[in-house]
Structure formats: C-alpha cells, structure tokens
Amino acid sequence: EVQLVESGGGLVQPGGSLRLSCAASGFTFSSSAMSWVRQGPGKGLEWVSTIFTYTGNTYYYSDSVKGRITISTDNAKNTLYLQMNSLKSEDTAVYYCVRGGLGYPQDYWGQGTQVTVSS
Question: Contact, 110 vs 5, CB < 8 A?
C-alpha cells in the first residue's frame, strides 16, 4: 500500500523558514518522480516543485518559489523534503506530497500539512 505522510508544517513569521518532510512507503521511492503541490485558502491547487529521484535528483521549481525553496530527498530513508526560506504570506497553504508530476501521473497524495505565514 502506497503511503505518503507529511510533517513539519506550522505557523511562521514572514521571512522565516520551515522544512517539510514526507515519509514514503509502499513503492520504490528511489525510482520515482515526487512533487510538492499546495493549495492556498480559497485557491486551486498549485504545483510547487518536482524531483526525479532516479536521475541524480533532477529538480524543477515554479517561478513563484524559485530561489526560496529547495526540494531534496534522502533515498535511504524514503523521505522527501521541502526547505522553505524567506517565507511570504502568499506561501500560506496546505502542502501536499505527491507521487508523480511533470508528465507522470500524480497518483498518490499525502494528507497535507498546513503552513501559515503570518505575523
């Protein structure tokens, strides 16, 4: 059974940092495309970033987060990360860990973790 469990969300002040984690199980994590997708209050789903774990960690970012966010993996721990720096109020959203992305079916989603950026 595929499982994706996010953690690390919370309340942070503008300009602050958070690191999200996604523990994956039930599939070959090191041969996958993995993504972060977010949904802000009253907004639709927004793709944030994708990493291809099987190509030496090739990664892509949306323009809205480029330069502030880093996606990475620990293949030994089957864990996906999202390091977020210089957070802005517009980064407030539920962040989902997703298997797939960028041409690959987004077929499994985690339950999401809330990130709130507010003073």
Answer: yes
